[in-house]
Amino acid sequence: MPYVLVLSASGEQGDVLDAMKAGATGYLTKSATREELLAAVERAGRGEPVFTPGLAGLVLGEFRQLASAAPTQDVLTPRETEVLRLVATGRSYRQIADQLVVSHRTVQNHVQNILGKLHLNNRVQLTRYAIEHGLDDLR
After folding, report:
1. What is the distance between the alpha carbons of residues 106 and 84, in angstroms, rounded to a whole number?
2. Do 28 and 52 touch, CB atoms closer than 8 A?
3. How far apart are CA 95 and CA 99, in angstroms?
4. What is the C-alpha to C-alpha distance for residues 20 and 5, in angstroms, rounded to an integer?
5. Would you call 95 helix, strand, or coil by DSSP?
6. E strands of 1-139, at which residues?
7. SS3 call for 20
8. Number of other residues whose CB lies within 10 A of the CB of residue 128
9. What is the pLDDT along the chain (139 residues), one digit of tens a residue?
10. Which of 26, 36, 60, 79 has the highest CB neighbour number within 10 Å of its CB?
């Protein structure tokens, strides 16, 4: 799965949200340092959400609004809910696969099914959904 990290001169709310809605994994402004950019590329390459400080709150607020209108997790199987919780804690697909003793591809399939059922587009939105619905911990 390809991941997209946007590097832009604009930190305007509309630009950031448009990029995220289009499926970007992260968004950095050009004010990011070299070290921040290198770390962001590495994290985005693993499918982790990445934002310039200050933009994460903006994106989180928007997706909280979207999540409140999204279907509930009741449509998910118990295994999908478990995978959703693990994704929301920042684990990679490989780490999830190791923990659940399944293949990396099985985890990817579960995530794709979850995204479809919840009408979301990417791991960033999925993580935001999980946080909004209290699924970002492993109670």
Report:
1. 13
2. yes
3. 6
4. 10
5. helix
6. 5-8, 26-29, 50-51
7. helix
8. 25
9. 678 899 999 888 888 888 887 888 888 988 888 998 999 999 888 888 888 877 777 777 776 666 555 555 568 999 999 999 999 888 899 999 999 999 999 999 999 999 988 888 888 888 888 888 888 765 5
10. 26
* β-strand pairing of 50-51 with 5-8: unpaired
Domains assigned to the chain: 5-66 (3.40.50.2300), 71-132 (1.10.10.10)
Q: Which amino acid is at 95?
A: Q
CB 50 within 8 A of CB 25: yes
Q: Whole-prediction pTM value?
A: 0.49
